[in-house]
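Trying the structure run again after the queue cleared.
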Amino acid sequence: MATKKIKKAQKPVKKLVKKAVKKAVKKTVKKVAKKPAKKVVKKIVKNAKKLAKPLAKKSASKAKKVLAPAIKPRKEASGKQIGRILHYFDRISVAVVELDGELSVGDAIRIIGGKETDFKQVIESMELEHEKIGKAKKGQAIGMELKDKAREGYKVYKI
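Done. Tokens:
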């Protein structure tokens, strides 16, 4: 969704740049019609840059208005960081989490990572060495099923 809005914001910028280049070409061609081609091209580029600066400022403010709803700052992580994801098995939606504190079945957790991953869930089951456990201690690497995708390095918070 954000990429559509970015493309939408780029359209007026491209139009403004084209206008600036056309104006620059017209001005320089009129002034220096009999000079060598290299000098003419240099003048065109110079005039285009001069004309493009104020247009770029206008288009930047337009882009900010269009993109403002798409770019949302991430909320600060609530709760205490309890671990991080070491590995994620995407076919079975299971993550291996190395714990920095205690965690038990029924606890609410929040997983944050990457640009868009931020979700909450309640732990329904945990496994240690392929055996179900009710509580996990600091330093253990446990397996738990996740409702959304995750990747290595994502942080796990206890809410």
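The first strand starts at residue 80 and ends at 89. Worth checking whether this holds up in the mutant runs.
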